[in-house]
Each structure stands twice: as C-alpha cells, then as structure tokens.
Amino acid sequence: MPPASGNKKKSSGRGDEKLFLTIVLALAAIAGLGSWFAAGALKRHDDARVIAPDESRRLENFSLIDSAGRRVTREDVRGKILAVSFLFTSCSLTCPEVSKRMAEIQSLTATDDDVRLLSLTVDPRTDTPPVLAKWGARFGADTNRWRLLTGDKAQLLWLVGTSFLATETNNPFNSMPGNFAGTERIAVVDKRGNVHAFFDGLRVGTPAAVAAEIEKLRGE
Amino acid sequence: MKTELLLCGLLLAVAGCKPAASTPPADPPPTKLILIPTTYIVRGIIQQIPPDLRHVTIKHEKIPGYMAAMTMDFSVRDTNALAGFAPGDEISCTLVVTADDDWIENLKRTGKIGGIAGSPGWHAVEAELSIGDTLPDYEFTSETGRTVKFSDFRGRAVAFTFFFTSCPLPEYCPRMNKNFSEAQKNLLADTNAPTNWQMLSISFDSAFDQPQILASYAGIYRGANVDRWLFAVASTNTLASLAPKVDLNFWRENGSISHNLRTVVLDGSGKISKQFDGNDWTPEQLADAIRAAAKIR
Predict the structure, then answer these.
(1) What is the tens place of the pLDDT at every residue in B223-232?
(2) Considering CB atoms only, which of A75, A88, A176 is closest to B79?
(3) Nearest neighbour of A20 by CB, restricted to B128, B216, B251
(4) Percent of chain A beyond pLDDT 90?
(5) Which residues contact A20 (CB under 8 A, 6 or more apart)?
(6) B255 has a chain A CB within 8 A of its CB
(7) Is the pLDDT of residue A168 over 90?
(8) d(CA A98, CA A201)
(9) Mean pLDDT: which of A121-135, B11-25, B243-257 is highest?
(10) pLDDT tens for residues B49-95?
(11) CA–CA separation, B119 vs A124, rounded Å?
(12) Cβ neighbourhood burial of B132 (10 Å; 0-12, 13-18, 19+)
C-alpha cells in the first residue's frame, strides 16, 4: 500500500486559500477518521456463531480458473471439506479482513489434507489470474490448498447465487451484481458438497470457529 | 435411451439418410455402417442435468439425417463438460454415434442463458457494454452545481472514473484521480496532442459530496486548470442504471462505500473506446487512450 500521497498539500492557487486549506484539512480528517472508524467497525469481537444457510444449498459444478491459470472444477475438490469466501480485489474494506480470516483458517488446517479453501471473485473483469495471484501472495495463500478462482462472469455469479448467497432486496445502493447479501461470510461445505454453515468473515473468532466446525464435520 | 438411439441410427442408416460415405458395405448393411463413428449437430435447450453429470436432458430440434425433434437424454463422457450449464440454456453440441455407444461433446451456449438468466446478477451480465458500444447519456451534478451530461462533450474524447471524497485508502479513489492528474499533465505538455478531450471524475456519494466539497477536492488533483476536467456527483438512480453497463459495483458498507474501479474512455461520438479495470494501469496508458479516442469525433 503506497503511503498517503504528498500531492494532497498542493495548493490550487486560488484566492480563497484559507477556506481551501480548511476544507482540505477537514477532508483529510474525515478520510482519516473514516479509515480508523472502518477498521474499528470491521473487526467484530463478539462470538463467531454458526449461521445456518437460508435454504438447502449445495456446491454446484463449476469450471473456473485459479490464480496460477489452472482450470479448476468441482471434481478437483470432491470429497474435501471446503471453506469458501467471496472477494474482489478492488474492495478496500471488508475483503482484506475476510482474506485475513481465510489465511488464519489456512494455517489452522495446514496439516489437514481433507480441507481446501476457495475464494470466488465477483469482479472477474478486474480479477484476472495474475491479479488474484498478487492478492493471494499478500495473504500468504498456499495456492495448492487455497484456490482463488475467476472465470466467466455469468458462471461466477450463477455459482455464488445458486450455491451460497442470498439476494438483498430493497437496497438501491447495492450495485454488487446480483445484490448479494453477506459477501463477508465464509461458507463451510461438507465432504458431500452440501453447504453446511456460514461464519461472519469479519469476526476475529471466526477462524477458530471454522476449524472447530471442520473438526465436527470430520467426526460425522 | 441408448438402445433407442442406436436403433434409430440403424434404421436411418438403412434408409440411407446418412450413408457412411464412399465404400458401399459388402456385408449386411446395418452392422458395418455403424462401425464408422458418425457425428451430428444437435441444437436445443437443456431441460435437466442429473447430479451425476454423466447425462443431460435436452429438448432438441430435428437432428438432420438422424432424429426428429424431441426431448431426450444424452450421455456425456467428460463430466466437466456440463460445468457452468444449467436448465434453460440454449446450446449446440456434437452427437457422436458409434457401433456400441453414443455421446455428446463440444457443448456450447448459443443464446439465452436459461438457468443463469433467472439467477441473481444476470441483469448485470446482460447489461454490460463492450468496446464500440454507445453508452447511453447520463446526467450528473457538477462541482459548480450545474447539470452536466456525457452528451455535452460530443466531439471530444471523454475519460471518466468513479470516486468519493471520503474514500479512505490511497490506492483506490485517490489513485484514480492521481492518474487522471498525471494524464492531464501529459496531454497538456504535448504540443502534438489533440485538444478535443474532457475528463470527468464522478462521485458515488450524493449524500456528502456537495458541489463545494467537490470543487475543493478537485483542486487537490487538478490545480488551477479547470477547462478539461470536471468533478461531478451521480444520483443513486443514475448509478443504478449506469453501473451495470460499465461493470461497476458499489454498495454502502460499515458507514463507507465499497466499490470496484472502472475507468472508461468514450470517443467523440459517445462510443466506448477503452476501459481500464482495477488500478493496475498508468497515466500514460490513459493519455494514449484519450489521444486515440479523440480521433473519432
């Protein structure tokens, strides 16, 4: 992340410099406060509880491309327990937080060969394999266990909407394709491909809760 | 199904609908003819995909030389062949018939995407414009408080991007405006550069980004040269219509606005000439895209 750029201090050369400076400072303060507030609000410290799927959902078949340019289908993760998250790399607030949780889940399950992680982009035009590779590297993704997936937009949105997320209605200020609700969630899929539960990807307790849930699933 | 199909094939082969080429069979026709794999083009609509992914039910048109229009199951050899397909999809494929087996391959979507069409997000896929498409006209409120619209700049290349003034992270909105600033300098310093171009930075945040705030913020990046670069704010309704066309996503989240990055260059006639996705592009690339787009008035 580049440092807050120095060009902010450049004056406009207009007459009303005092007012201008005040507004610049106010804006800087708002931006600073905003990020502080956002960072504070984003981490939720209360219990990471299990969120049941809104309806019976299962992992549909898919054919996507991972960050290394490899074709990945459902066949490649058959019989594995999955932790699945959603992202787009231009997302400045929630997605990095959720990816941190995924990284923790990755290390908590590092020795479990029956566990894989998937992250699906909802912005495939931006998130090409090299862009996803950069994102993965930022969070220390082991790309053989944690596959960051992109591909055909229609298929990605269909997969997210059919297998995982509900649609948020009545929000005119949601122009995420499909108006998906709960993109900050991490889904746990059992070995038979059923979506077992969701966890809030912003809660600090989520990685441990996901690992515990995986352990429970393994016992079943 | 397989025996039916085979029988069907045999009958048609005997009837000479699809004779297997030059060498006339010496033995009784049916068995010999079918030894040569025959392929047919099948067009239809997927009705059902069973979970095993080894079959697909297709309501198909007449298969010339082979079968009348009907709904039936076809085998699939590669289980990945059905990935991404759903009931309702209009498809074409190749039907391969040999002596003892038949299957489909080369499955392709040809039209309406049925399953996906009904799914959330389909409108966003359908609405997306491509290079060469005309972007409909949209109105914004500019930093001077006046209405500004894309069509005000016909005859000029128009580069626009999206931001909001309280965007907290330097590599997102500020990066966009910084790149615009550098591209502006690049073009103004180049005596051979065209002069028919315009930049427009469009804010998501109609609740906060009032004209005075936009004007002050603009000064940070634009300096004193206000001729070629306007800052404006879009209403939520305008954004709702414009966003899917340029594959822009945004929503309010935790007291801020989350969004992806889209930068678009229109030519002088209002057609999309170039799009920059994300933040991994340079001011020089933008300046060059503006030079190219300005050639078309």
Answers:
(1) 877 889 999 9
(2) A75
(3) B216
(4) 55
(5) A11, A12, A14, B216, B219
(6) yes
(7) no
(8) 5
(9) A121-135
(10) 877 778 888 888 888 888 888 888 889 988 788 887 887 888 999 99
(11) 17
(12) exposed
Task: Tell me, yes or no, if B223 comes closer than 8 A to chain A by beta carbon.
Answer: yes
A-chain residues within 8 Å CB-CB of B169? 1, 35, 92
* A157/B116 touch (CB, cutoff 8 Å), yes or no: yes
- How distant, in Å, are the alpha carbons of A147, A182, B109 from that of A155? 17, 19, 12
Measured CA to CA, the distance from residue A176 to residue A218 in angstroms comes to 35
Looking at residue A206, its amino acid is T
Between vectors from CA A29 to CA A28 and to CA A34, what angle results, nearest 5°?
Answer: 100
The residue in chain A having the minimum alpha-carbon distance to the alpha carbon of residue B225 is: A12
Does B127 lie at the interface with A, CB-CB under 8 angstroms? no
Query: In this predicted structure, what is the pLDDT of residue B52?
Result: 75
Complex confidence, ipTM: 0.71
Q: Take residue A143 and report the two structure tokens written for it.
A: 């790309």
DSSP structural state of residue A51: B
Residue with tokens 């997306």: B128
A35 CB neighbours in chain B (<8 A) are: 168-169
The β-bridge relationship of strands B262-266 and B256-259 is unpaired
The span from the CA of B170 to the CA of B99, in Å, is 66
Look up residue B190 and give its two tokens. Answer: 């180049």
The B55-60 sheet, strands edge to edge: B70-75, B55-60, B38-48, B90-97, B102-109
Q: Is B193 exposed, middle or buried (0-12, 13-18, 19+ CB in 10 A)?
A: middle
Q: Beta partners for A133?
A: none
Q: Which residue is associated with the tokens 């594959």?
A: B247
Residues of chain B with C-beta less than 8 angstroms from the C-beta of A17: none
Q: Note whether B113 contacts A: Cβ–Cβ < 8 A.
A: yes
